[in-house]
Amino acid sequence: xxxxxxxxxxxxxxxxxxxxxxxxxxxxxxxxxxxxxxxxxxxxxxxxxxxxxxxxxxxxxxxxxxxxxxxxxxxxxxxxxxxxxxxxxxxxxxxxxxxxxxxxxxxxxxxxxxxxxxxxxxxxxxxxxxxxxxxxxxxxxxxxxxxxxxxxxxxxxxxxxxxxxxxxxxxxxxxxxxxxxxxxxxxxxxxxxxxxxxxxxxxxxxxxxxxxxxxxxxxxxxxxxxxxxxxxxxxxxxxxxxxxxxxxxxxxxxxxxxxxxxxxxxxxxxxxxxxxxxxxxxxxxxxxxxxxxxxxxxxxxxxxxxxxxxxxxxxxxxxxxxxxxxxxxxxxxxxxxxxxxxxxxxxxxxxxxxxxxxxxxxxxxxxxxxxxxxx
Length: 375
Known about the structure:
By secondary structure, the chain is of the alpha/beta class. It has 16 helices and 13 strands. It has a seven-stranded mixed sheet with strand order 3-2-1-4-5-7-6, with helices on both faces. A hairpin with a 4-residue loop joins strand 10 and strand 11. It starts with a helix and ends with a helix.
């Protein structure tokens, strides 16, 4: 949730830090819903699952804890028609973790979740990637006479899984031979499992009217790249486009993605006059301790350190004074032109654009269009 609150902004208008209405899609026995109640005691929480047995267990647990009695548990299939009319809409935050990869119709479920989401809300989606360990195991196991459509557990299957782990040399997401039966049943065996690339999940979401805002895995994977000048070759690709490129070259086994119904704006990277009218707004992903403002002009770069508790990461950057001033005035009120007009340094547009692009792609800042365009 720290990462979601940091990057889940609606073009700088506000953070998803205190959602009023929360939907837990695919809640199982309610563990995630109870955690949401502890974190957001004032929020209205609805939790749904297709399993009547799971919802029954969740309600039984709910009766034991008075602080969780306000959670609304509903039996429902995420892909059923008119889901929003059954559970309600206008949710500020929707969480769907480890569910869509095992549904026969994930696209229909995504369309329903989009209808439940408020116009300025955020949808967190946790889904299998193309290198999820089930992708390779489900191809190999039938060749050894194992029926992957239903759980087979026993000494023979466990030895076979151990053999697969040894051949993979630890490259799988986890050691399949040591998985508990309940995880083995869900992550390896079953009628179907969707292990899809980021491009496929993102395309499915766009068809449902959802736009990808951030990818947790690729935020970490690309951090070092965007501290190198070669990263400028990616311009003017958007964050989502770069994440898709990264997943094609460096696929992951599990995606943690953030979506919104609002289509991200594209800064005018090729227009100096246009970009200078935009404003910078810090996302909150990193907290910076900025050096004091200089009283005299100098071209010496100064070290700036940004720390992110939400992703357990740190950025170390050597910045000119004008870039530090942009971070200092990062509330979206002043345009880049207004900030730079107070600087005694002359800044070339290519350098300005390159530095802003790197900060933008690292989710350090969002870039907001001119105030007149936001009205």
